[in-house]
Amino acid sequence: MTAMVQDAFRRGVTLLDTAPSYGDAESRLGALAPSGARYITKFTLSDRPPNEEDLYLRSLRRLQADSLHGLLAHRISDLSHPQFGQVLEILRSARSAGLVERFGVSVYDRTELDLAFRIIPDLDIVQVPGNAVDRRLLDDDLVAELHENGVQIHVRSVFLQGLLLEDSERLDSRFRQLIPAIQLFDEVADELRTTRMRVLLGQLKDDPLVDAVLVGATSYEELRQILDSWESNVQIPKLGAPALGNEILDARAWKAR
């Protein structure tokens, strides 16, 4: 893991996304990441009164960092916590003190984004799902308005939990609707003599609304493929997202099927 983190940093990946709920990820990153790494982490509220220790100080110590680039509410339900007003006061104080540069929330859809903006009118970072088959939020007027007003837009699920990288013939029957899109990505990749991964990343890389793209890698080889695809100079045309329902696009719905 040390080599992965250091190589990613060397190639320009200096913003790392983590959370206390990801096992010992914060402590491991704090021990392994080079000096100058920036972090986004998350908090989840409990029955205890909100306090600086639970919200961000413990994470800062684990990460061995002086400040956080971003601090997100991990669940939209946290915004409805009866003491969330106190949370906002703590976060605003941390931002004023330079301990947290930006705070906001991770959302799944427009309804959640509306709620987040209503409860946190001064949010300045939001994490949204987006990829080559799901541009529902990336094409939303509210996202454009937020970005214009200085809110950073970070995009996750860029490979749709890995489904968009799968061999179409091996897709679970639940996701067969993705096959035409995957075939199109492969056709474009063949025509441009590049890879499907590059086509997928190309749908986000030059998007003016996208400030950061969140990807994960479980091995050095996966990391290398992602970075090579991202750094490729092959120009990728914008492809229209197919009409797919929540049962395909929202990973929360997969468990219910």
Task: Describe this entry's structure for a reader.
This protein has 257 residues and is of the alpha/beta class. The chain has one domain: Alpha-Beta Barrel (TIM Barrel). The protein is 40% helix and 13% strand. It is built from eleven helices and seven strands. It has helices at residues 2-10, 25-32, 52-63, 84-96, 110-119, 141-148, 179-192, 196-205, 220-231, 246-249, 251-254; strands spanning 15-17, 38-43, 68-73, 100-106, 125-129, 152-156, 212-213. It is globular. The mean pLDDT is 94.
What does the secondary structure layout of this molecule look like, with pairings?
Elements: H1 2-10, E1 15-17, H2 25-32, E2 38-43, H3 52-63, E3 68-73, H4 84-96, E4 100-106, H5 110-119, E5 125-129, H6 141-148, E6 152-156, H7 179-192, H8 196-205, E7 212-213, H9 220-231, H10 246-249, H11 251-254
Parallel strand pairs: 1-2, 2-3, 3-4, 4-5, 5-6, 6-7
Main structural class: alpha/beta
CATH architectural grouping: Alpha-Beta Barrel
CATH topology: TIM Barrel
Order of helices and strands: HEHEHEHEHEHEHHEHHH
Mean pLDDT: 94
List how many beta strands DSSP finds: 7
Task: Note the total helix count.
Answer: 11
Stretches where pLDDT is under 50 for at least 5 consecutive residues are: none
User: Regarding CATH, which class?
Assistant: Alpha Beta
Radius of gyration: 19 Å
**What's the overall geometry?**
globular
Outline the biggest β-sheet.
7 strands, parallel
User: What oligomeric state best describes the polypeptide chains here?
Assistant: single chain
Number of separate domains:
1
Q: N- to C-terminal separation? A: 35 Å
Strand content: 5-15%
CATH homologous superfamily grouping: NADP-dependent oxidoreductase domain
Lateral strand order in the biggest sheet: 1-2-3-4-5-6-7
